[in-house]
Amino acid sequence: MNHRILITYASRTGSTIGVAEAIAKILNENGASVDIFRIQDVHDISPYRSIVIGSAIQNRQWLPEATQFIKANQAALKKIPFAAFLVCMTLAMPNGEKYRPGIIEWQAPVRRLVKPVSEGQFAGALDIRKIPSFSDRLKFRLSVAMGVWKEGDHRNWDAINTWAKEITPLLVK
């Protein structure tokens, strides 16, 4: 099968990249030919029959470059299967699952532009050293000290792999 799928992502500290790579691995294992690129490096989506777009969350929003990519490619994305995922630390909080209904709404701006065939929401990894802004590093250090979340990798690889398997038949038709 020669079904080309693009997986593209917007990330600040690398968590989203790992999720995108795990999804690519599952799709590859199921017969798709997958290309994976940072969203800033994608200039033409016409070679692809399906697309998966992921974004880290900052301030309860997709990263601006991810939203802009969807706006710029809105017409084309409406014609092919498209799945979307987000990666956020809120799901890594103690009892973070109780916030999932609100987190799902953080994808509403994407949904208003193009309706995905599936949406995934995943916890991220927190390595404070990788946070670019000093003020954001300070905020995360304080929130770790207060027990809001812990540093480390909180990505649930089983959930990510399960979602990737679920979207495979939606993308590879």
Strand composition percent: 15-25%
CATH topology: Rossmann fold
Total domain units: 1
Q: Give the N-terminus to C-terminus distance in angstroms.
A: 10 Å
Report the structural category: alpha/beta
Cα-based radius of gyration, to the nearest Å: 16 Å
Largest sheet: 6 strands, mixed
Secondary-structure element order, as H and E? EHEEEHHEHHEEHEH
Mean pLDDT: 93
Residue runs with pLDDT of under 50 for 5 or more positions: none
E-strand count: 8
CATH architecture: 3-Layer(aba) Sandwich
Overall morphology: globular
Number of helices: 7
Your description of this structure?
- The chain is an alpha/beta fold.
- It has a single domain (3-171), classed as Rossmann fold.
- Helix content is 39%, strand content 25%.
- The chain has 7 helices and 8 strands.
- Strands 1, 2, 3, 4, 5 and 6 form a 6-stranded mixed sheet that branches. The protein has a two-stranded antiparallel ribbon with strand order 7-8.
- α1 (15-29) crosses α7.
- The protein is globular.
- The relative contact order is 0.20.
- The model has no long low-confidence stretch (mean pLDDT 93).
